[in-house]
Amino acid sequence: MRIAIVTDSTAYLNREEYEQDNVYMVPLSVIFKNEVYKEEVDITSDDFFKMVRESEQLPTSSQPTVGELTTLYQELEKEYDAVISIHLSSRISGTFQNAYSVAKTMEGLNVYPYDSEMAGAGQAFLVKAAAKLARENHSVNEIIEQLDKIKKETAIYFVVDDLTNLIKGGRLSRVAGGVATALKIKPVLTFRGGEIIAYDKIRTKKKALKKIESLLEESVREKDYPIVATIVHAYCENEAEAFKEQMEDKFPDVRFTSSFLGPVVGVHTGEGAVGMSWTMDINRL
C-alpha cells in the first residue's frame, strides 16, 4: 500500500525536508489589511515579521479551505492508496476539522486525519516519523499507533516576549495571560490536551529558558530511549542558536536540530519567542 503523508505549514519543515521525506503540505494563511498571504508560499517568515514591525494593525490567520484540501487529496489519489494527514492542534485551529470533513467525502482514497495536539516542532516530529514509517512500508494502523506513542512522549515548552497576541487571539486564557502581563513575568508555556497553557511563572526570559533546560535534563535522566530536540524561534535566530549551542554542550547524547515559528504561529507568539521540543529519536532506536 502506498501511503502519502500530508501536513500543514505550521510544522515548519524546510524545503529539503519536504522533498527528502516526500511530505505534502497545505498552507495556512495570514491576513494583512485584507491581503491574504499563504505562509511559506506567498510570504516568508522574515518578510512577515518585518511587516508586523511596520504595521499598527495586528494580522490574523486562517486555515486551509475545504476546497484546498479536496484539491490536494484528489491529486494524491492518482498515486496513493491512503493519506495520513497530520495537522496542528484542533483546539487552536479548524484545519484538522476541515481535513476530517473532506476525508469523509473521498470515495477513491482513504484519508486519515490526525490531530497532533501541537504545532511547530512537536508537530514536525510526528510528520517526519510518519514519513519514515511509510517509506518502510508500515500499515496505516501501525503508523498511527506509533504516532500516538511519540505524541505521548513529546514535550514542547516556549517563552514569548509579549503575551498580548496570544491573549487577543484566544490562544491563552485571559486570566493566566492577564496575571502574567500585570506582573511583567515571562511564563513558560506548553501544550496540554491541545491547548496552550502557562506551565510556570518566571521573572525573566533567561530564567525561563533555564527552566526549559531543567525539564529536558529531567527527561534525559528518566527516559530509557535516545532523545531528539529542536530549538525553535520567532525571528530571533542568533538568540536561538546561542541557546542551541549551550544545550549541545550540556547534553552531548541528545541530537539537536533547529526550526522556526512562521507567520501563522508568529501572529500569536510575536517576535522574540524561543522554545524547545523533544521526543524519542526513532532514527536511533
UniProtKB/TrEMBL annotation:
Pfam families, sorted: DegV
Entry GO MF terms: lipid binding
Keyword line: Lipid-binding
Tree of life domain: Bacteria
InterPro entries xrefs: DegV, DegV_C, DegV_domain_contain
Entry keyword Disulfide bond: no
SUPFAM superfamilies: DAK1/DegV-like (SSF82549)
Listed Gene3D superfamilies: 3.30.1180.10, 3.40.50.10170
Cited function: May bind long-chain fatty acids, such as palmitate, and may play a role in lipid transport or fatty acid metabolism.
The protein, known as: EDD domain protein, DegV family
